[in-house]
Amino acid sequence: MKKYFPNTLKFTLFLGIFNCFFSEKNFSQADWKLITAPHARDLKDVFVFNASSFMVVGGHETNDSILSLFKTNDGGQNWSLYVDLLSEPWLQTIRFANPSIGFAAGYSGTFFKTTNGGNSWIPLPLPGYWANRNYLSAFFIDPLTGFLAGGTQSPDSTQTILKTTDGGLTWSEQLDQLGPCLKEIYFINSS
């Protein structure tokens, strides 16, 4: 559902919900702040480190060949551009296993890893036909164990879940079958 909201609405909703959880007082809609999306990008996911620092991923809203990753340390007033690659598929999801180690994934098997809190990112290509899948959600239980969920969105749609136990260096297939593309994956504990 989040991909149908315009950028401004997504950030308005995000900050309203964010303020309700991370503030000592209750907020009404009148207390929400509108934050302009950085560099006219279509933002797909956000990871919150604390009340003022978060990272967002996405791409260009009218040209789907720009991959973008931004970070703010002042609640969205200023943004630092960490990755902005031309002719690359969009990133759709970002998750951190701890304050240093994070992962971002997206269309056409795009997968990145950081080991320094998002200051630099390295691409880790997915092998074989997994590189043709679109990954819309990631969840990491710890820095080594994580999952990607997605698939393909076509007349012969597939749903795919991959698992890593070495921080994204290798993957094993948990599910790859016909069915609607998976949009979210989440676990309540490690078992």
Structure in a nutshell:
The chain is mostly beta strands and about 190 residues long. It is built from 1 helix and 12 strands. Helix content is about 10%, strand content about 40%.
The tally of strands reads 12
Secondary structure tally, helices: 1
How would you describe the oligomerization state of the chains in this entry? Answer: single chain
Strand order of the largest sheet: 1-2-3-4
- Could you give the distance between the termini? 28 Å
User: What would you call the shape?
Assistant: globular
Helix content: under 10%
The structural class is mainly beta
- Main pleated-sheet profile: 4 strands, antiparallel
**Strand portion:** 35-45%
Mean pLDDT: 81
Secondary-structure element series: HEEEEEEEEEEEE
Report the C-alpha radius of gyration, rounded: 16 Å
Low-confidence stretches: 1-27
Write the layout of secondary structure elements.
Blueprint: H1 7-22, E1 41-48, E2 54-60, E3 66-72, E4 80-86, E5 91-96, E6 102-106, E7 111-114, E8 122-123, E9 134-140, E10 146-152, E11 158-164, E12 172-178
Antiparallel strand pairs: 1-2, 2-3, 3-4, 5-6, 6-7, 7-8, 9-10, 10-11, 11-12
Q: Any descriptors?
A:
disordered N terminus; single chain; four-stranded antiparallel sheet; 191 residues; mainly beta
Describe the structure.
The protein is mainly beta and 191 residues long. 8% of the residues lie in helices and 39% in strands. A 4-stranded antiparallel beta sheet has the order 1-2-3-4, with no helix packed on it. Strand 2 and strand 3 (66-72) form a beta hairpin. The longest helix is centred in the N-terminal third of the chain and has 16 residues, at 7-22. The protein is globular, with a radius of gyration of 16 Å. Mean pLDDT is 81; it is low at 1-27.
